[in-house]
Design a protein that fits this description.
Two copies of one chain form a homodimer. Chain A has about 325 residues and is α+β, with helices and mostly antiparallel strands. Chain A is built from nine helices and twelve strands. The mean pLDDT of chain A is about 90. The interface between A and B is large, with 75 and 76 residues.
C-alpha cells in the first residue's frame, strides 16, 4: 500500500531548480526576485464538474496545469512555479504515473516548477496555485481597456464546446473531426508566448474559459466601457466549418473551455500586435471595438445588429447553470 | 439564486491593502519585496476527512486558514496573503456568511490578505495557498537540526485528539472538559509570533499536524539524525490530566491536529528560546535531544527506555489509516 509520503516522493518529487527549497518542508521558499511583481492564480478542478469521471489521467495532468498557465498568459506573466493539492479516492500507481507525466510535460514546456503541495484521500479534486513574474506596470489587467481599442482573440474558438456537444449527444460529427475537437477540450494550449509578447502592446486581456461573451464582459465591466463584436469575424477554424451557422455562432461566442486570449489594444498598435503574434507563432484575429457606451453589441459581417437574446446564449456559471 | 460572481463579491471581496491587484482578475499581483524570500504552503481540507459533515462553518473558516498559517509559523515566516479555492455543494448564504466571518477573523488577526481564488460546485473542499516573507537564511527548515540540539515543543499536546476520542465514543469526559478539548480541535492557534521570535535562535522546526512522533520524524529524516524524547516531559495541560497515563502518552505523542511547533535549538540558546517564547506569549517546553545516531528513542522521567511498539502508536497517513 502506497503511503502519502511514498506517493509524493515517487510521483511528485524532482530536484529544485528555481526554488530555494522545494517539496518536503512546511513551506517552499522562492528566492527574492529583484524588482518583479509576482502574479498568482488558483484553479480547482472537480471530477464530474470540470472533467468526466474516468478521464484520461495524462490529459487531466496536462489540462489542470494548462488552465492555470492560461491565467498567467492572460496577465502577460512568465511562469515560475506551482503548488499541487490533490484529493484522491485511492492511491492508484497507474493513475498517478500517467497524471504526473501529463502534468510535468506541460510544466517542463513552460519552465514551471512544482514546489510543494498536499495530498489527501477524498473525491477526485485537483487544486493548483501558480506563480509567475512580471515587471511592475506591464500586467495585462482586465480594467485597462480604453475606448477605441480593437478587440482581438487568439487562435480559434468553439472547438472545445463542439467536443462537449458530441459527448452530450447534441451533435454527431465524423470521428477525425471529433478527435481534433476533443484535443482542444482535453489538452488546451496556454498562450504564454503571446501573453509575454503583448506586454506593453495590449491594454487589457483575459483568458476565455467561460465563453467569449462572458469573459469579454469582465473586461467591459472592470474597464467601465462597452464593446461591439463582429460575430462573423470570430475565428472558428476548420473544425467548426461543418456546423450550421447558428450553432457555430453559439459555440464561438459562448462555448467555454477555449483557453484562448481575448485582449484589447489601441488601433495604432495593429502592426505591433501582428508582429507579437508572429513572434509567438500564434494566430490572432481582430473581432471588434471597445466603445465608450456601456453594453455589448453584436453585429454581422454587414454591420447589421444581431439580437443577443435571439442566440439563446448563456455564459457558464457554476452555481446557476445546472 | 446566488451566482458565482455574486458569491465572490458578497462574501470574499475586500479592498486590497498589500496586494497591487487583488480578487477579480486572471491573477493577483503582489508587489516586489526587496531582498525577501517568499514562503509558500498549500493545504486541502475535505469534508468527512479533515472535518465532520455539517461542521460549524465559522469554526471551519478559522481552522482552514489557521492550519496554513501554522505552516508559515513553522518556517518563521511573516504572513502576507492567501488564495482560497472552494468547492461547495450549494451556494448557501448562511453558510458562506459564517465561513467568511471565521476566515477573515483569523486573516485580520495575522495581517494576511485574501488576494484571489476560485469557487465551484462540488463536494465540500477547501484549498488555501498561503504566502509569507522571510529574509534569506533565516527560515526554520526541517533539515537544519544538529546533533546535541534540544528538542522543544510549544503549548500543550493531545487535546485535539482527546476531543476526537469523545466524538468517536472512545472516551467519555465531562462537558466543560470536552468543550475545552474541542476548541483545540476546531479553532487551533497558529504559533506565528513564536515562529518569528525563533528566527536566528532555533535550528529546525515543524508544525505538529500529524502527531509529534511522526512530525519530529520528518526533522530527523531530513536532518539525517536521531533523537531522544522524554515522554514524561511532554506538556499535556490540565485537560489531559484526567486521562489514564497510557492514553495520555498516546495522545501527546501521536495525537495529531495539535498545530503546535516542534523545534530544535542549540543548548547554548536555552535562555534565548525562553526569552523568545516570553516575547511571543507562548509556553515552550524542552522535551528531548537530537542525537547523532539515527532513530527515535523514548524515555520516561527516570531515563528508562520505553518500547515504541508497546504504545501502539501510528502517525496519521491519509492513504493507509482507515
Amino acid at each position: 500500500m502506497l503511503s502519502e509520503f511514498d506517493l509524493i516522493s515517487r510521483y511528485f518529487s524532482r530536484p529544485s531548480c528555481y526554488a530555494t527549497l522545494g517539496v518536503g518542508d512546511d513551506c517552499a521558499l522562492l528566492p527574492p526576485c529583484p524588482g518583479m511583481q509576482m502574479a498568482i492564480s488558483t484553479d480547482m478542478l472537480v471530477e464530474g464538474r470540470h472533467f468526466f469521471p474516468y478521464a484520461d489521467p495524462e490529459k487531466l495532468g496536462h489540462k489542470c496545469l494548462a488552465v492555470n498557465l492560461s491565467d498567467l498568459a492572460a496577465m502577460g506573466a512568465t511562469p515560475r512555479a506551482f503548488t499541487l493539492a490533490l484529493s484522491l479516492p485511492e492511491a492508484n500507481p497507474n493513475w498517478l504515473a500517467a497524471f504526473s507525466e501529463g502534468l510535468f510535460a506541460v510544466a517542463d514546456a513552460h519552465g514551471c516548477e512544482l514546489i510543494g503541495g498536499d495530498t489527501t484521500k477524498g473525491p477526485l479534486t485537483i487544486c493548483i496555485t501558480i506563480f509567475g513574474e512580471i515587471p511592475p506596470g506591464l500586467a495585462l489587467r482586465r480594467d485597462a481597456a480604453q475606448a477605441g481599442d480593437d478587440i482581438w482573440v487568439s487562435g480559434t474558438l468553439g472547438a472545445a464546446r463542439m467536443a462537449l456537444a458530441v459527448y452530450r449527444h447534441e451533435l454527431s460529427i465524423d470521428v477525425a473531426m471529433q478527435h481534433a475537437a476533443a484535443a482542444r477540450l482535453h489538452t488546451p494550449t496556454p498562450r504564454i508566448p503571446l501573453g509575454l509578447a503583448l506586454r506593453g502592446i495590449a491594454h487589457a486581456a483575459i483568458d476565455i474559459s467561460d465563453g467569449l461573451i462572458g469573459d469579454l464582459g469582465h473586461i467591459l465591466d472592470r474597464s467601465k466601457l462597452g464593446g461591439t463584436l463582429n460575430v462573423d469575424a470570430l475565428p472558428h477554424g476548420d473544425i467548426l466549418a461543418v456546423l450550421p451557422p447558428e450553432m457555430r455562432r453559439r459555440f464561438t461566442l459562448a462555448g467555454g473551455d477555449d483557453y484562448e486570449l481575448c485582449f484589447t489594444a489601441p488601433t495604432t498598435n495593429r502592426a505591433a500586435v501582428l508582429a507579437a503574434a508572429q513572434s509567438a507563432a500564434t494566430a490572432v484575429t481582430r473581432v471588434g471595438t471597445i466603445d465608450a457606451s456601456p453594453g455589448l453589441r453584436l453585429i454581422d459581417a454587414n454591420g447589421a445588429m444581431i439580437n443577443l437574446q435571439s442566440l439563446a446564449l448563456s455564459s457558464f456559471d457554476h452555481f446557476i447553470s445546472s
